Amino acid sequence: MGLPKPSGPFVVGCADIMTKVVQMPTNLTCPSSVLEKGVDFGMFARIYYPTEDESSKHYKEAKILPDEQTSLYASSMFSIFKLKWLSGLASFALRGALQHSFIDAPLIPQSKYDKTLGLDDETNKKFPLVVFSHGLIGFRHIYSTFCSDLASHGYVVASVEHRDGSALPTYFMDPETNKATSLPYMDHPTTENADEEIIQMRNKQVNRRAEEVSKLLDLLHVVNKEPEIIENLFPSTFDLKTLKGRLDVEEPLIIGHSFGGATTLNSINKDDRFKCAIVLDPWFLPLTEDEFYESGLKKPTFTIFTERFNWNKNIQRCQRFLDGLPKDYGEVITLKNAVHWDQCDGPGFMPWFLRAIGKFTGGIPQDHDYQQGIILQRQIILDYFGKYLKQKTYPMPLLTDDYLLPDNFFLGMRVFNNKEKTEEVIEDEETIPSKEQVVETGKEEMMKKEEL
């Protein structure tokens, strides 16, 4: 199936940046040690930006399995489902899974950028800046469909790879050995009935994630002012100096999915530099009463839920958050007939696998249309951020009488009720399909394709 192509006038480039470790944990073999006070693995992010069509032809197109640490990403994708045996097959099947962006392609020259967008001398010609925060078991390039689309319209998007134990595959450069070292994933329940210790751990994670988001914005300020002082440990040929003075660091925007949605809300609650936010299927459990609901900054926030994601307690927390915002600062819509995975790249590359998993965890609907859902969500993201950048004042509601919301969405949020779905996410051994079940479902999917 693949990913929908970016919708904007620009071809997209991407480059990775990794900075050095500041402080190591006391015991890296203990997953929770990454949350010790003061631990700082540096920054790891992928930057998406506009490039030129002619220039891009000389560069490799990015893939879901990156050229660096390919085996780490392949094995990690399936280990969470107790299906690590699929990593070899995944490496083979996903070797051509392209993401519509070109690695280390040069930044588009200012003159061509201005001409393409029709910018005049009175217009702010800097790149609008967006920070993206991934969800649990995510990584910096698993949301390329959203990041590339924004970049194709002239944005620069920095997608962080979190080092709090929530990124399924991630690594850093060990300062003693100068070798790539993977970080352990904290495989803990995500259910509402998790014990208090787990909830506190999730809260530590979401606070660490917010710190990382702010540090990434700090780094982007340095890129914009003094890029020559940055030591990029990632083997990239992209010249960061070409971004100097071209980022609109004074008007940063932010977006996140799931745990990244909670991170986004936490970030705009604490870092006044972010102007507005979009959250995709936000997971509210990690946000505590005192730190989140009772205090903090109030910024315009647009929420997009998928119909099959929500449960009562998450909706109650979301409503409490919305009730605390000024009038017209909070808007919520829900994408019909959609699942949680419909807000990342996964279904575009592994529909057969996710459909197999779905049979045992609540299901992907038969008339499910991943690509259409992505295209519709991308347009709303562009509309919301575009409205802020145009007026730069609050409030800035998108869903006014003259805005045509597609019929694929409904206003607000609700719990999806059917016999196959409970109100809580279930993660236990009984929901994990066997090797034989996954293979058999994969065969069924292939037979359907052949019939078509």
From TrEMBL:
Stored SUPFAM superfamilies: alpha/beta-Hydrolases
PANTHER family linked: PLATELET-ACTIVATING FACTOR ACETYLHYDROLASE
Keywords, comma-separated and alphabetical: Hydrolase, Lipid degradation, Lipid metabolism
EC category name: hydrolase
Entry EC number(s): 3.1.1.47
GO biological process terms held by the UniProt record: lipid catabolic process
Key word ATP-binding present: no
Transmembrane feature ranges: none
Domain of life the protein comes from: Eukaryota
Protein name according to UniProt: 1-alkyl-2-acetylglycerophosphocholine esterase
InterPro entries per the UniProt record, alphabetical: AB_hydrolase_fold (IPR029058)
Single GO MF descriptor: 1-alkyl-2-acetylglycerophosphocholine esterase activity
